[in-house]
Amino acid sequence: MIVVIGGGPAGRLGAMHLAQTGKEVRLVEQRSIGGQCLHERCMTICALNEIARLIECARTQRDLGILDSVPAVSYPAIRKRICEVQEKLSSVLDAETRRAGVEVVYGVEGRLEGNRVFIGDEEVRADAVIAATGSRSAIPDIPGTDLAGVYTYQTLPAMPDLPRRMVVIGGGVVASEFAHVFHAFGVEVEMIARHGLLRDLDEKMRSAALRDLAGIGIREETAVSSIEGGGRVSSVLLADGEEIVADAVLLATGLVPNSEMLQGLEKRPDGAVVVDTRMRTSVPGVYAAGDVIGPPYLTPAARREGVVAAENILGRETVMNYEGIPQAMSLRYDYAFAATGAGAEGITLSAPAPAGPGSFWDVAGGWAGLAQVRVDPATGRLIGASAAVPGASILLSYVGYLMKRGITVDDFDDIVEVHPSTDGVYGLARYAAGMLKKKNE
Locate the FAD/NAD(P)-binding domain: which residues (predicted)? Predict the structure, then answer.
């Protein structure tokens, strides 16, 4: 028997892959199947962001005189309906997993002591193990994080209604996504980033994102001294002495691997389980995948890691390759990007994206998004692409794959694009091909 600990993207996909080859697989999940992606992170952001975008579109059309009002939101109703949909999705995933032949055990903790496997208090014999126990919110060492009214993405469902003023502590993708949502809902939002805001983004993409975060107070290179309140949060005190009044605080300060139940394995100082490129841990027969092994903390990467672990358990030597895995952020538009890591000396071209579905009415305000490509001038190979447009996430999934396959900008001559579309990558790639031809003539 093979035991899989954790029913998130990595564990579930790994378990199904093994079961479909005829292996006996037992998946142990303490809560509901689907992991944080379904229950707290990805799907929650999708749900909230759809409503935020609807409100922003209505606001744009009201300002153009097309609509006469902007709808108000009921946050309690949003939370209730999100939970209902998540439960439906979880039941679908449960049925799909069982149909693949996986035995699913709920409500108990799976744990390891070296090569010894426990399900609850019972020790079981396992031929191999995949540890996919995920991650949790990192709580900064700031006084007051335990006050009522202080939330993480995991505890946000307990927030009873929209606050009037919210402080978001963090400067990354998750902080930006939640800040955007709550600002669209009418909340006064202040963001406090210890370092730079979205500092890992290309500067042009970052500038585009700041357009979507307009109206939000943003403090960069700013440290928080404490969260104040007599039992309930009332303000955030900054290191420079400034005090920001707040009815709610959202901590979006990163992730920490959940590995306390995995003993006897080599780990990094943050608790991340150390694996090689085949997802093997320091204990023979024990594999690990997903957030528990640390960054990049991406669902598609976790799914692939789970499959790679399963393949190696089956004796099929398979290596995890992170090259070209796209990343995305959801604000007013999608922000997505992918790179192969090759061709450091490439040239970058950028241009406004064409108006299309989801951006037509924004043209009145002078903005329809951004597209960008990075090209190796010696070979014409596309080595990077990014887009800030509606639908960018779908676009970059396929562009990222094509980049791994070595697509060149000349190859875009053979592509007939869909129209209308917000895809500016296609046009830029063709422009780059023409530019390189002229240079080489």
Answer: 2-306
